[in-house]
Design brief:
Blueprint: H1 4-12, E1 18-23, E2 25-38, E3 45-58, H2 59-68, E4 72-79, H3 83-94, E5 102-104, E6 111-118, E7 121-128, H4 136-149, E8 155-159, H5 168-180, E9 185-188, E10 202-203, H6 207-214, H7 217-220, H8 223-232, E11 238-242, E12 248-251, E13 258-260, H9 273-286, H10 291-305, H11 316-322
Parallel strand pairs: 1-4, 1-8, 2-6, 4-5, 8-9, 9-10, 10-11
Antiparallel strand pairs: 2-3, 6-7, 11-12, 12-13
Helix pairs in contact: 2-9, 4-5, 6-8, 9-10
Length: 324
């Protein structure tokens, strides 16, 4: 078990790290109010809106987590030429993230997820998106932006929501240049095709995503079998299956499964916890931790963020306190 002083030193070192993030950029909107009556026009609640909040989501929330932890970061992705895209730029400006590598694609809207919440319960969600692959010219420009940022980055995170930014060919190009640069590629996958992500250093699916990879009920009945199945289907990748408020399981070649349980606590919302895991796992790895040590650090951070509402982040001070 690592000493508290060592953990503190690791957390303090985050501010010296530079992480490159690529993926689907999302604007999360929270429409919050109270329900006092049922609509006379249809059997649905009427929400009296009291506030509307906007947060960075998807790959942009990974960047938000990294910045909250003190790291430097760059973001590559695409937004539309709309108000939501401009809101993304504004939110990135507020946390000191350069958005010059985010391209504007006039042919698609900025991905936006609007959640209506009353009495701390989500009532409905509206998604505004166009999930088609990028045009070849846009994809080529984005790849160049990525390559320009890679030399000054310590590690690469891909946050894939299968909304069109990543094609199979694009991901393979990314994996090749990252490998040639001798850097790790950490991937949060959303697709059913496991082989899409060949070349990743670490995959971090949640349990449902891992089961979609396996497509086998018998395999999914055992967490150990599930992780082993995914591991055997890949070349040199490691796998971390996240389990929300229950913790995570770590799978490495030729090693037994390591299960890490989250400390018992009230879980308010698991939304965004995967982004915290991605951020802390990557920061841990570039700070010299082994995969299991970095996963333990990420598990601690995820345990903190699930107690918060919405796409929340963790601060270095909160993390240090939790590591005591």
């Amino acid at each position: 078990m690592m000493k508290v002083e060592s953990w503190n030193s690791i957390v303090d070192s985050f501010q010296k790290k530079n992480i490159l993030v690529l993926g689907d950029i999302i604007l999360d909107e929270y429409i919050i109010g109270e329900v006092e009556r049922i609509c006379p026009e249809a059997p649905v609640p009427v929400v009296r809106v009291s506030q509307r909040n906007f947060h960075l989501g998807g790959a942009a929330n990974v960047v938000h987590n990294l910045r909250a932890l003190g790291a430097q970061t760059s973001l590559c992705g695409v937004v539309g030429g709309d108000d939501s895209g401009r809101k993304i730029y504004q939110l990135l400006d507020e946390i000191g993230v350069d958005h010059r590598s985010i391209l504007i694609d006039e042919s698609r809207p900025t991905i936006q997820k609007s959640r209506v919440i009353a009495r701390r319960q989500q009532i409905v969600r509206f998604d505004n998106e166009k999930s088609v692959e990028l045009a070849a010219l846009v994809s080529a420009r984005l790849f160049q932006e990525f390559c320009d940022r890679l030399p000054t980055s310590d590690i690469v995170i891909v946050s894939d929501y299968a909304k069109g930014v990543l094609s199979r060919h694009f991901f393979q190009e990314i994996a090749i240049v990252v490998h040639k640069a001798s850097k790790k590629l950490i991937v949060d996958p959303k697709r059913q095709d496991l082989h899409f992500y060949r070349g990743a250093s670490v995959l971090t699916p949640n349990f449902a995503e891992a089961c979609r990879f396996a497509q086998n009920e018998e395999v999914c009945a055992s967490l150990e079998k599930l992780g082993g199945h995914i591991l055997s289907s890949l070349d040199d990748s490691s796998v971390i299956i996240t389990l929300g408020g229950d913790g995570m399981a770590v799978f490495e070649k030729n090693l037994p499964m390591q299960f890490m349980k989250t400390k018992p606590q009230e879980v308010f919302e698991v939304s965004g916890a995967g982004d915290t895991v991605l951020s802390l796992l990557s920061l841990g790895l570039v700070s010299g931790l082994s995969l299991s040590e970095a996963a333990s650090l990420a598990n601690t951070g995820a345990g903190l963020v699930v107690k918060k509402m919405g796409t929340a982040t963790v601060t270095p001070e909160e993390l240090k306190q939790a590591l005591l």
